[in-house]
């Protein structure tokens, strides 16, 4: 029997499952460019999770934070709190990608909005 080694890190599979589960939820409600962006973010996050499975704790922490930002961004649970957009998740993910020196994983940098300053 051949056993396939997936992420090979202690939280790798858990993080990938979180991304996949959230993406499945988003697929039910998003269409067009928003869905495309969500798919790109998920692909990037999966790649980062696997790529940093054996990296430093700091690098894994950056990726874990980006995953949680993507996964926990959508619902305010009835409170009158602003809901983070996919564009905000894109900025966070792209910042982590740059910090990790992986510009090949940038999520559609042409679409990345400029940060707004109040």
In short:
The chain is mostly helical and 118 residues long. It has one domain (12-105).
Keywords:
single chain; 118 residues; mainly alpha; 4 helices; disordered C terminus
Could you say which structural class the secondary elements and strand pairing correspond to? mainly alpha
Order of helices and strands: HHHH
Beta-strand percentage range:
under 5%
* CA gyration radius, whole angstroms: 15 Å
Quickly count the domains: 1
The major sheet is characterized as: none
Distance between the termini: 59 Å
Q: Supply the number of helical segments.
A: 4
Task: Describe this structure as you would to a colleague.
This protein is mainly alpha-helical and 118 residues long. Helix content is 57%, strand content 0%. It has four helices and no strands. The chain is globular.
Topology record:
Blueprint: H1 12-29, H2 32-51, H3 57-71, H4 86-99
